[in-house]
Amino acid sequence: MQSCDDKNEPDFVRCAANIAVARGAGLTVHEIPVLPFVVTDGVRAVVPYLNFYICNDAVIVPVCGHDADNEMLALLGEYIPDRDVVGLEIGAILAHGGGGIHCITQQVPAI
Predict the structure, then answer these.
(1) Phi-psi region of 70 (alpha: psi -120 to 50; beta: other; left: phi over 0)
(2) Which of 15, 55, 64, 103 is catalytic?
(3) Cα–Cα distance between 20 and 99 in angstroms, integer?
(4) In this predicted model, what pLDDT tens digit does every residue of 86-97 receive, in sequence order?
(5) Residue 50: which residues within 8 A CB-CB, separation 6 or more?
């Protein structure tokens, strides 16, 4: 689940509350503690690592040049060991448009 390691971030309380609810329901929670953002045209947009796309043998993860990109890709690799975890620079335009890799793709199941 998405968490936020910066207590000054607006999403800190919301992420902590979501995790508390999940744990309270008896779920095992794996946290992604960094919630990076970009600013484009004066608008702040988060670029969550969890907005990834799972394809055949890989997981395509949005990255934005944050210092923690490689660390978070490695952490996701621990949680999803049977696939290659690959970072894809999504750019400010995609983040500003309100979606990441998962939001703008649709999976087509094999028949």
Answers:
(1) alpha
(2) 103
(3) 26
(4) 999 886 556 555
(5) 1, 2, 32
Q: Is the pTM of the predicted complex or chain greater than 0.85?
A: no
Reported as a single tens digit per residue, the pLDDT across 28-73 is: 999 998 888 888 778 887 888 998 999 999 999 999 888 999 999 9
Asked if residues 79 and 30 have their Cβ atoms less than 8 Å apart, the reply is yes
Using CA atoms, how far apart are residues 4 and 6, in angstroms rounded to an integer?
6
CA distances to 92, 95, 108 from 40, in Å: 6, 9, 32
pLDDT given at position 101: 77
- Residue 99 in tokens: 């979606």
> Are residues 4 and 35 in contact, defined by beta-carbon separation less than 8 angstroms?
yes
Neighbours of 47 (CB within 10 A): 22
- Is 103 marked active-site? yes
